[in-house]
Amino acid sequence: MKKLFIIISIIVLIFALVMVSKIRKKTIKGEEFIKTVAYDLVKKDRVDIYQTFFGKVEGVKQTEIFPDVPGRFIEYRVSEGEFVKKDQVIAYLDRSIPGMVFEMVKVLAPVEGVVYELSLNKGDFVSNQTFICMIVDDRKKIARINVSSEFLGKIKKGSFAEVEIENEKFTGKVIRISKYPNNFTNLGGVDIEFEGKGNFINSGCSVKILLESKKDVFVVPYESIKSDENGDFVFLLKNKIANKIYVKTGLKNQALVEVVNGVVENDTVITIGSDMIKDGQKVKVR
To answer: What topology does CATH give the domain 50-57+138-214?
Structure first.
């Protein structure tokens, strides 16, 4: 009798464990089924496509200075970054040779502007081809960059650009584009004109150029767009159900994606959590 009671108790215990396990699995399954998501509304906005390049700053008008006669360099009469007027003395040269003494030669500024690249030392021999310095009209500057053929055709003359030099930003525009890239490097030159105070000539810079822009188009957050073998799609939230909708997309940047068709203004599109859901799945909102 006692043995029978033990057997019955074991059977009841096993049955109870099986039922608890089934209930637990159902609970877990139900919890996994209802995902928590976030959403945003489809709206009209602007999509801008930028690309960043790197280059060097030059003056719009810059003149390299060379001496009229050879001699020994004596001294500069100006400092780097100093503004000089036309015919102002920039440097002195000594033409003297053993047994003959000449008056020091003045090197004059042929134009007005700011002086750059003072690189000679006292006693250096200079010829007619020796570079003395450069005078730049730096009221306007040029950021000169080299661009691969992939982007060269997308840049337009007059396009907006943002030039950054030593953490300072200046707005400018594209004024020149090479018609053809170099056959060996596959790069073409692009010049961006900008204005800005500062001794930036010959400094390195980064240039962000607007390649394409669309205004007043339907957009959704970048993270809401998904893709499969049939194309791009989003999940629209309706009555707490995720509905998979295929869409045609246009311009894309890191924040927004243009949607050409498939959605209308104020549709509720799922953003965060869209990777973890399926079509027709019940969801809850944060």
So the answer is: Elongation Factor Tu (Ef-tu); domain 3 (2.40.30)
